[in-house]
Amino acid sequence: MAEFWEEQSADERRDWRKQIVRWFLVFALLMACIFFATWWATSAVQFSASRVQQTTGPTYHVTGVVRDAATGQPIPWAEIVDDPAGRPPQFRTAADRLGAYELVTIAEPHTIQTIALGYRMGATRVGKAWYTWMPKGSEHLDIKLQKEQ
């Protein structure tokens, strides 16, 4: 049978081991949080700098269907473009034969224009307010156009 001081010493060693493992896990979690915050801030600064230099690449996907406002029928071959009066770079796409489109653009809030033969041009806002902090993403947007009179 061990003496009291020997039993207490063994218990303390086990407690120290548990404490070291806990502190290591806390340290690893803290380092992961710091790494994530640094990566996030760097991405935001790079995106902001690319906007100033007008070299921003498309990272935001807008998808949907262009439809007739009165009938709800798809409008084939409509053209969807970033507003020419907006800040560059500007991107464009065309709807397919079923009116479906996918525009790859920037995440900054801006206006897109939709143009189709026999319809009034439509203007719609896309993007997200927090684009500087999260410059990627997607949005589903069905566009309705009015027929010309």
Feature tags:
about 150 residues, alpha/beta, Immunoglobulin-like, 2 domains, four-stranded mixed sheet, four-stranded antiparallel sheet, 1 helix
Question: What would you note in describing this structure?
Answer:
It is a single chain. With 149 residues, the chain is an alpha/beta fold. The protein has two domains: 53 residues; 86 residues, Carboxypeptidase-like, regulatory domain (Immunoglobulin-like). The protein is built from one helix and eight strands, in the order αββββββββ. Strands 1, 4, 7 and 8 form a four-stranded mixed sheet that branches. It has a four-stranded antiparallel sheet with strand order 3-2-5-6, with no helix packed on it. The longest helix is centred in the first third of the chain and has 50 residues. It is elongated and about 100 Å long.
Q: Can you summarize this structure?
A:
The protein has 149 residues and is of the alpha/beta class. 34% of the residues lie in helices and 27% in strands.
Largest sheet: 4 strands, mixed
| CATH homologous superfamily annotation of the largest domain | Carboxypeptidase-like, regulatory domain
DSSP, total strands: 8
**Helix content bin:** 25-40%
Architecture per CATH nomenclature, i.e. the level-2 architecture of the largest domain: Sandwich
What is the CATH class designation of the largest domain? Mainly Beta
Q: What is the terminal separation in angstroms?
A: 102 Å
- How would the global form be characterised? elongated
What's the domain count? 2
Number of helices: 1
The overall average pLDDT, rounded, is: 88
What gyration radius follows from the Cα positions, in whole Å? 28 Å
H/E topology pattern: HEEEEEEEE
How big a fraction of the residues is strand?
A: 25-35%
Structural class: alpha/beta
Q: Spans of 5+ residues with little confidence (pLDDT < 50)?
A: none
CATH topology of the largest domain: Immunoglobulin-like
